[in-house]
Write a structure and sequence with these properties.
The complex is a heterodimer of chains A (280) and B (114).
Chain A: H1 2-15, H2 25-35, H3 41-50, H4 52-62, H5 76-83, H6 85-104, H7 108-125, H8 131-139, H9 143-151, H10 153-166, H11 170-178, H12 182-192, H13 197-204, H14 216-231, H15 247-252, H16 260-274
Helix pairs in contact in A: 2-3, 3-5, 4-6, 5-6, 6-8, 7-8, 7-14, 7-16, 8-13, 8-14, 9-10, 9-12, 10-11, 12-13, 13-14
Chain B: E1 2-5, E2 19-20, E3 26-28, H1 36-44, E4 49-52, H2 67-77, H3 85-113
Antiparallel strand pairs in B: 1-4, 2-3
Helix pairs in contact in B: 2-3
Classes of the chains: A mainly alpha (280), B alpha+beta (114).
Chain lengths: 280, 114
């Protein structure tokens, strides 16, 4: 049971509050307001807007082509109405960990952004409602790698070494070294931050979309998006290999390989636009 | 299509995408051929980057989305997948997609070169 012990102790280390990226206080306040049936978007927007740096970053993100409204959203209020609270919350989380991500693993921010864009395009072509929600799941899909790098630097280094020396994909190397992957870390994080179920399953099941229980579409979209961004080698998730593409994921989305033509066409055109989006 | 820093823009390059301000206002439309005056004006508006047709700048940062480059990289990316019939099928599909796309892009570049 050595492996089990390692997992339990690692989970404790990962979630140890002292080093976990701190989310802005406004997020707590806003989350509380959302539960309140009497609160309205105006009040929520007002609270977010009090933090000017944060609102500027949020507006920069929502106006990128990733969400399909490039350059058209002028206020936090408008963003909330158009994208919904869950999306705005996911964006706040990603902007809060942006600097940490850029430092932890080179190319991971670009990979995440590319995955968010691909998720949006895949969701649209699969005819799914609210493609923005899928973008957010794509944006956060590798967060576990960042937190792993920060909280467990020695293990992170061992994973990187296994990728280099044994030509493994990052996910394979994680499981070889630690016994579990960033998908598991994602599940812990998503629970810890109380993220909605669809975003949680997108994050925790993008490597195993066939086992997603509640939101198979989200898991499938993020899985296919991750595959696509790797084919384009936009940024890197820690290795330079294609990921296995789940046949089941395509089935869930009712897509066949030739249907990817239009997805790839659109993705390639929009990629040029997100390539220099940084939040520093 | 390539997104390049404005410092590398040269007269004769053609905008593949409109240049817009942060608020979404279009400053110059797609398809416009840049002149020295245009480039000066963009500089004055503190535009950092523009998207131009073709891949005129070698080694510019950003991503090489050209189909020819993607086609060239497929073998490397799929190096550990061979022997899996489904992934072979996926690679075959991508190979065909990027091959046709590369031909289309080459033909367009040739037509514009005239």
């Amino acid at each position: 049971m050595v492996e089990q012990d390692l997992k339990t102790s690692v989970k404790g280390q990962i979630l140890s509050i002292k080093d976990l990226p701190t989310l802005p206080k406004v997020l707590d306040e806003v989350s509380r307001l959302v539960q309140d049936p009497n609160a309205n978007t105006d009040e929520i927007a007002k609270i977010i807007s009090r933090d000017q740096v944060l609102s500027a970053k949020v507006l920069k993100m929502v106006n990128s082509p990733v969400y399909g409204f490039p350059g058209r959203i002028g206020t936090v209020q408008h963003a909330l109405v158009l994208l919904g609270f869950n999306v705005v919350r996911g964006i706040i989380i990603s902007t809060s960990v942006f600097e940490m991500m850029v430092k932890a693993m080179e190319g991971l921010w670009e990979h995440s952004l590319g995955c968010a864009l691909a998720a949006n395009v895949v969701a649209k072509h699969a005819g799914l409602a609210d493609p923005e929600e899928f973008s957010v799941a794509g944006l956060l899909h590798d967060l576990g790698k960042v937190v792993g790098a920060v909280q467990l630097p020695e293990l992170h280094e061992a994973v990187a070494a296994a990728v280099r020396e044994q030509d493994l994909r990052w996910f394979e190397a994680e499981r070889a070294v630690m016994g579990f992957g960033h998908d598991r870390v994602n599940a812990w994080l998503a629970r810890h931050w109380n993220l909605p179920g669809n975003i949680r399953e997108g994050m925790s099941h993008h490597h195993s979309p066939e086992t997603a229980q509640l939101y198979p579409e989200t898991a499938a979209v993020v899985h296919v998006a991750d595959f696509i961004v790797r084919v384009y080698e936009f940024g890197t998730g820690g290795d330079d290999q294609a990921a296995p593409l789940s046949r089941k994921a395509l089935e869930v989305l009712k897509l066949k390989l030739p249907d990817l033509d239009r997805v790839l066409d659109e993705f390639a055109v929009q990629l040029a636009d997100v390539s220099d989006l940084d939040l520093a | 299509m390539q997104k390049i820093p404005l410092t590398l823009a040269k007269p004769g390059m053609k905008l593949a995408k409109a240049v817009t301000r942060d608020n979404g206002m279009v400053v110059m439309g797609a398809g416009m051929e840049l002149t020295e005056t245009h480039i000066e004006r963009l500089r004055g508006m503190e535009v950092d980057r523009i998207t131009v047709e073709g891949n005129p700048v070698e080694g510019a940062d950003g991503v090489d989305t050209s189909a020819a480059k993607r086609l060239e990289r497929l073998d490397h990316l799929f190096r550990r997948m061979s022997g899996d019939p489904w992934m072979d099928q996926v690679r075959g599909y991508l190979n065909e997609y990027f091959r046709l796309k590369a031909a289309e892009q080459a033909a367009r570049a040739a037509a514009e070169g005239k």
